[in-house]
Amino acid sequence: SRKRMYGPNLIDVPVKPYVQMLFEEVLNPFYVFQAFSITLWLVDKYYFYAICIFIISIFSIGISLHEIRKVSLMTMFSVEECVSSEELVPGDCVIIPPEGLLLPCDAALLAGECLVNESMLTGESVPVLKTPLPTGDGGYSSETERRHTLFCGTHLILAKGGGASAVAVVTSTGFFTAKGSLVSSIMHPQPTDFRFYKDSAKFLLLLGFVAFMGTIYSIVLTCVQVTWWELVIRSLDLVTIAVPPALPAAITTGTIHAQRRLKKQGIFCVSPPRINICGKISLFCFDKTGTLTEEGLDVWGVMEGGAAGFSELVPDPSLLAPGPMLSGLACCHTVTLLQGQPLGDPLELKMVESTGWVRHYYALDSEFGGHRVLAVVKPLSQSTSTGQAVAIVRRFPFSSALQRMSVVTVAHGGHSALAFLKGSPEMVAGLCRAETVPQQFSSKLRSFSSEGLRVLALACKPVDERTDLGTIEREEVEKELQFLGFLMLKNLVKPESAGVINVLRLANLRSAMVTGDNILTAVNVAKTCGMVGVDEKVIFVNATPPTAQSMPTLEFSLEGDRATRLYQNGFDYHLAINGKSFAALCNHFPECLPKVLLRATVFARMAPDQKTQLVKELQKLNYRVGMCGDGANDCGALRAADVGVSLSEAEASVASPFTSKTEDISCVPLLIREGRCSLVTSFSLFRYMSLYSLIQFCSVLVLYTVRTTLADLQFLFCDLFVVTLLAIVMGRGGPSGELHPHRPSASLLALPVLGSLLLHTGMVVLGQLAALFITTSQDWSVERRAPRFDAQLFLSSRYVPLNSTVFGVANLPNMENTSVFSLSAFQYIIMAVVVTKGYPHKKPLFYNWIFLCLLIVLFALTTWLVLYPGPFAGHQLQLHNFLDMDFKMLLVAVAALNFLVCFLVEVSEDFIL
């Protein structure tokens, strides 16, 4: 019945056959509109243009199908599984082999210990020790019981079950597992909520309205002289002109170029639309350890403490006299051995190494009173005997929510059972008997933390040997402890951090630190890397929840004194808050939360879910939030942020839009610069494609007025050889070398943008009308009828009046068409130059040498078509040959004037913005 309910244990990501993908792809609204347009052009006898667009569409569909299939194949993780693993269902008990395996399901560990590499999910290459699920009546959750859960897709390195094998119970299978959720997130990424994309859709509706108005104009103009069938064809043709089918594809070219440049810099992107969002980032959050600071830690010293106070600082723990403090440092960890090599958290590896003790993983249970032995440690000088050996018989791994870990140990023979606890000083002190905590606890902790040291506290207590140590509960172990002292570790700030923070600061981008470390240590690092200036103050936010005896409180203190002018103007102070105060602030003082978030720079002792909540709260304040981190506790925040940057190259990085190969934050300014460049390019391409449609739309309406239109090859020349080529290479060049203090606009519907488009369109219409009126007002024009192209007539330059009995291409060639077409060809090139902005977010135009060369070639070609078209070009494009060179130069002058006016309009828009 369970198999029928849950189905087979498969993460089935089928690779669709090309036929199915083709059917789904051609039903895309973009290609449906393409098919409609091609059909219309064939009916209207635009054969050459329709065939070329058909070939381009087939090529585009082929590329799209190839990319979709490639992504589908990449999404599937190649895993060789036993056939029986498909039969697993939740509730099954499985025996974990000692040599390990690749886990095919999520399972809760019931007995034994397992060493697991979870880099596929967390991004951390450090193996994690999994311990059995504690007994209790509470419900099970894989999120809250991560230390007791084996996740699908992770590599189980080693399993040990004492006298028996390790046993686990299946909790989830298929897409309901952690790996299945990751695969699902890849297949169905989080939708982007970005104003540029929203405005794009609205602007297309605006172009549709323009097409509707043009259709009404054409109907009123031609309804008496053409058949209804021709009227319908003309009206629908205007729709395909005013709303360009290639617009959605064109605006992505800037993003594609940016993605390629980022890849060359070692930054990989799995969500290209996020690149444009990088250009609007206003606040960037950084994890501390491994992101702003070095990953590795060095032991700085040990200071024992008790009821009588603290002893002298001991720089090397191996110099400590034998006792509980030295034993606690040697035992309270999850370091394990694999083929003789110690594996575990780098901090714990440093701690164990500093004691001078060695670790033996295997030992007989009988040597230690029959207790199930997990590991054995002993002083290096006693490595050949077991006289001073200590066995770890129970282990409660570190929990970021609890901020501590603990172990239970016994001496040789099963005597002297002791429990050791290690964790954040505040948490450890709260679990110790008050009389054992030195009075100087707070002052010493503040002193060490202010120096930027990572401080851990240790405690211990004896355990009754009659207690069943194999089943003792964590709550029983972690209470009524005796305080032992501090372990200090030095964590250096990465040399690149200060420079990057300064770059962001000069660009008016806020930086914030979100860490699980002590608040004083975090403030010290913030000052070291430049988040907090040397002349700026730090105000600590202290919020407490209500109790039976008191109301919730909210205080702001500056070095122990209450701050009075909290919300003064200027940025000469920063707020710092820890996780407990953040939770109390959200729950009991929500009206103060926005004010705190607007000025807070340091968020310390933050749990993983609090990091995610912080990102979402900042987004509610209209911040575009970036997050940079490298650990498992950052994954939620990386996914919630508008732009997440992972400094880990593990497979879990696919859950983050961006992954950097460089293990420092130098990638952040580069990413923002590329984002701004891509956004400006997408903005320019959208405006260019819109103006291209409006130019062609105006040309057709102007020529409709005199009962003619553009020829098939004239459409082809403008659309493919001018506009398409310019749009493809417009996004090249690259970003500016510096971050400007002002971010680029992302609103297409802003008044300056709409105003400039309206003015550009007005200049386009005036230019084309000027070309038409100048042509018809020439003295050398004579009346003559010739509805079709004639070589002798072409060479005679005599004016050919339009045939009033026919419409459209039947009236070609003619002088009106040639003049309007020639000027519109110049206008396509003019607008490409006008809307291609460089400063301050892109390199100047001459850096994009391919685009510059293409502009020169197209300008030369268009000038040649106007001045010296020749019989072949005139015949193919159905152009009229003007022999009056003064008139031809006048057309070029009109185009130059058109460029000058449009350029001035664009400059005035930049000034307004």
TrEMBL record:
Q: How does the protein associate with the membrane? A: Multi-pass membrane protein
User: RNA-binding: is it a keyword of this entry?
Assistant: no
Question: Where in or outside the cell is it found?
Answer: Membrane
Q: Which domain of life is it from?
A: Eukaryota
A Pfam family per the record: E1-E2_ATPase
This protein's UniProt keywords = ATP-binding, Magnesium, Membrane, Metal-binding, Nucleotide-binding, Phosphoprotein, Translocase, Transmembrane, Transmembrane helix
Q: What is its main location?
A: membrane
Q: Which GO terms describe its molecular function?
A: ATP binding; ATP hydrolysis activity; ATPase-coupled monoatomic cation transmembrane transporter activity; metal ion binding; P-type transmembrane transporter activity; polyamine transmembrane transporter activity
Q: Which InterPro entries match?
A: ATPase_P-typ_cyto_dom_N (IPR023299), ATPase_P-typ_P_site (IPR018303), ATPase_P-typ_TM_dom_sf (IPR023298), ATPase_P-typ_transduc_dom_A_sf (IPR008250), ATPase_P-type_domA (IPR059000), HAD-like_sf (IPR036412), HAD_sf (IPR023214), P-type_TPase_V (IPR006544)
Which part of the chain is the P-type ATPase A domain? 81-186
Record keyword GTP-binding present: no
**What name does UniProt use for this protein?**
ATPase cation transporting 13A2
Organism equals Gasterosteus aculeatus aculeatus (three-spined stickleback)
